[in-house]
Amino acid sequence: MDAESPKPAPARIAEPPTFRAPRMISRPKPPPQTEEELGAEPKLGDFEDVHALSVSEARAVVTAVHAARLKKPQNENPLGPGRPHNDSVTINQFVEYLDTFARYKQNENLHAMSGLLDSHSELSSVEKALLGSLACDSADEAKTLIPSLTNKMSDDALEALLVEMAKLQDRIA
């Protein structure tokens, strides 16, 4: 009977499991970023055809929106009666920034400055906004801060434009 009894199979040594990395799940790749720089040729990416505002123009827009909200009947103002904007720290700092750095606070001066810049069709919207916000003292300073002006205007023409703009600025007395 011993001869007929099946011999047990030799015990197999269990092989350690092999490591298999999880299947790679790829995330959608973000669209390639376009270069954005304001050099000799302004590259603005998605903002190429968007109208830019100077700080003074942005202040005028925000002020007009706040005035319109204050004129609304109390029940139509979504923020509540007498509130032109949310009282968040960010909004208050934004409004304070606009009030501090706006160069042209009177509407007449702002419109005159816009008309003066609009008369120079060779300037892009961004260049006009930067000239209106930076208040450069000289053509050299303007061309250093806004390199794309170098090939668009002569120093004399730019200097004359800056002098006219300086006359329109609201100076703190």
List the helices and strands and how they pair.
Blueprint: E1 37-38, E2 42-43, H1 55-71, H2 89-101, H3 107-118, H4 125-134, H5 139-145, H6 155-168
Antiparallel strand pairs: 1-2
Helix pairs in contact: 1-2, 3-6
Keywords: Nucleus
GO molecular function: nucleotide binding
Domain RNA polymerase Rpb4/RPC9 core: 45-172
Tag the structure with descriptive keywords.
about 170 residues, mainly alpha, Growth Hormone, Chain: A, two-stranded antiparallel sheet
Write a short abstract of this structure.
This is RNA polymerase Rpb4/RPC9 core domain-containing protein. The protein is 42% helix and 2% strand.
Strand order of the largest sheet: 1-2
How many DSSP-defined strands? 2
The overall pLDDT average reads 82
Low-confidence stretches: none
CATH topology of the domain at 107-168: Growth Hormone, Chain: A
- Identify the overall geometry: elongated
Question: Strand-and-helix sequence, N→C?
Answer: EEHHHHHH
Task: Outline the biggest β-sheet.
Answer: 2 strands, antiparallel
User: Which homologous superfamily in CATH is the superfamily of the domain at 107-168?
Assistant: RNA Polymerase II, Rpb4 subunit
What is the terminal-to-terminal distance?
A: 121 Å
Strand-pairing-aware structural class:
mainly alpha
CATH class of the domain at 107-168: Mainly Alpha
- Proportion in β-strands: under 5%
Note the total helix count: 6
Corresponding CATH architecture of the domain at 107-168: Up-down Bundle
Family: Belongs to the eukaryotic RPB4 RNA polymerase subunit family.
Region (Disordered): 1-43
GO cellular component, one term: RNA polymerase complex
Protein name: RNA polymerase Rpb4/RPC9 core domain-containing protein
